[in-house]
Design goal:
VanA_C_cat; 18 strands; Rieske Iron-sulfur Protein; 8-stranded antiparallel sheet; 366 residues; Naphthalene 1,2-dioxygenase Alpha Subunit, Chain A, domain 1; alpha+beta
C-alpha cells in the first residue's frame, strides 16, 4: 500500500493549549550532557533520552523501549560488539538501539530464529549543538520525523563556552502564559519591587521602538530606563536590544563600549501545565563576572516572583480562561499570538513564514 501524505498541521491553536511543532526547542546546555550518561527529559509531553554517546556525540531518541515500555534511560550505553558503534541497552531484556533509534540486537533470539531486528525503531529527534546549547527539533508527525527545514537561532555576542550564570525553574503554567508573562512590560513595579532593580514608587513613561525579526520581533537597541538601577552597576553607557523568537526564546544583548552581556531565557514545555524556564548569562565584561552573584540572586528572585504570580493567575484561570488585551502594554503578547498563528498557517499551507509584525513605536508606564 503506497504511503499516504502526512496530514497537514492544523492552523488553529487556542491560546493556552497545544504546542508549536516542526521547530527548535531549547533542550539543554552542552555541559549538561556527559559521554555515556543516559539522561531522561520530558519535552512537549514526550519522554526523551538526551545524552552523549561514548565518543562524545549528542543524540536524542524517545525514552521508551518498544518491547515492554521500560525507559531506555534506565539502561546503559555500551559498544556494539559487531560494528564497534555505541548502542543503548535496555535494562529489562537487553535489547539494544543505536543513537538513530534502530534496533541492533535482541539477545533472547536463538540462532534458528531469523528476524530482521533493524525493522524495529524508536523515534529519533534531530538535534543541533552550537554555541554551547543543545537544540531539539520536534516534528508534528511522529511517524515521519522530517529533516528540519530551518536551523536554530545564532545568538549575538559572547555566547558559547561555560555560562557565568544559569538558573532554572519549573512554572506550573502552559508555555503561552509563561511567554506573555515574560514579555509583559507593565508588571515590573508590582511584581519585582527590589531596591536594586527599580523603585516601586517612581514609574516612568516608556517609549520603545520595535521591529520584526526572524520568527519574532525586537525592542531595538536603546539606553536602559533610568529607573532600572542594576544596569548602572556595569558602568559606562549601556545599550540593550531585547529579542523574542518562536517558539519560546528571549534574549537581551547589552553592549557597554566593546564589552557585552547576553542574557538568554528559554522556555521549554514539559507538558500542558508545566514549563521549564532556563536563564543563562554570558559576558566578557570583567565587572560582570565580579558581580555575577548579585545578578544570579536577581535572576532567582525574579523567577520566584514570576512563579508565584503564575500560581495566583492559575486560581483565576480555573474559573475563567478569557483574557483582556490592551494597547500598548499587551501588544507584544498580541504579536506572540499572531506569529504563532502565522507559523501554524504557513506550515499547513506549505509556504514561507510571513512575519505579521510591523515596525512601530509602543508606549506604556512602568
Amino acid at each position: 500500500m503506497p504511503d499516504q501524505a502526512a496530514p497537514a498541521t492544523s492552523a488553529k491553536i487556542a491560546f493556552g493549549q497545544g504546542f508549536l511543532k516542526d521547530c527548535w526547542w531549547f533542550a539543554a546546555l552542552s555541559g549538561d550532557l556527559v559521554a555515556g550518561k543516559l539522561q531522561r527529559y520530558v519535552i512537549l509531553g514526550e519522554p526523551v533520552l538526551l545524552a552523549r554517546d561514548l565518543d562524545g556525540h549528542a543524540y536524542a531518541v524517545r525514552d521508551i523501549c518498544p518491547h515492554r515500555a521500560a525507559p531506555l534511560s534506565a539502561g546503559e550505553m555500551v559498544r556494539d560488539g559487531k560494528g564497534g558503534g555505541c548502542v543503548v541497552q535496555c535494562c529489562y531484556h537487553g535489547w539494544t538501539f543505536d543513537t538513530q533509534g534502530t534496533c541492533k540486537s535482541i539477545p533472547s533470539l536463538t540462532a534458528d530464529q531469523p528476524m530482521d531486528v533493524e525493522k524495529i525503531r524508536v523515534r529519533s529527534y534531530a538535534i543541533r549543538e552550537q554555541q554551547g546549547i543543545v537544540w531539539i527539533y520536534i516534528t508534528a508527525d511522529p511517524r515521519r520525523p522530517a529533516e528540519p527545514d530551518h536551523e536554530p537561532p545564532i545568538l549575538p555576542g559572547v555566547v558559547g563556552g561555560k555560562p557565568i550564570i544559569v538558573e532554572t525553574m519549573d512554572f506550573d503554567s502552559h508555555i503561552d502564559h509563561a511567554v506573555v508573562g515574560l514579555m509583559d512590560p507593565a508588571h515590573g513595579p508590582y511584581v519585582h519591587q527590589q531596591w536594586w532593580w527599580r523603585s516601586a514608587k517612581k514609574q516612568l513613561s516608556k517609549i520603545k521602538q520595535f521591529e520584526p525579526r526572524e520568527f519574532g520581533f525586537s525592542m531595538v537597541r536603546h539606553k536602559p530606563s533610568s529607573n532600572s538601577r542594576a544596569y548602572k552597576i556595569l558602568g559606562g553607557a549601556p545599550a540593550t536590544e531585547i529579542t523574542f523568537r518562536l517558539p519560546g526564546i528571549r534574549y537581551e544583548h547589552i553592549e557597554i563600549g566593546t564589552q557585552q552581556v547576553l542574557g538568554l531565557t528559554c522556555l521549554t514545555p514539559i507538558d500542558d501545565n508545566r514549563t521549564r524556564i532556563t536563564q543563562i548569562f554570558w559576558s566578557d565584561h570583567g565587572l560582570f563576572r565580579f558581580i555575577a552573584p548579585l545578578f544570579r540572586f536577581g535572576a532567582k528572585a525574579f523567577l520566584k516572583q514570576d512563579g508565584n504570580m503564575v500560581n495566583l493567575q492559575n486560581e483565576g484561570l480555573k474559573y475563567d480562561r478569557s483574557l483582556i488585551w490592551i494597547d500598548d502594554a499587551d501588544t507584544q503578547a498580541k504579536w506572540y499570538q499572531q506569529i504563532k498563528r502565522e507559523w501554524m498557517q504557513s506550515r499547513a499551507e506549505k509556504r514561507p513564514f510571513v512575519n505579521p509584525v510591523k515596525a512601530t513605536t509602543l508606549k506604556w508606564t512602568s
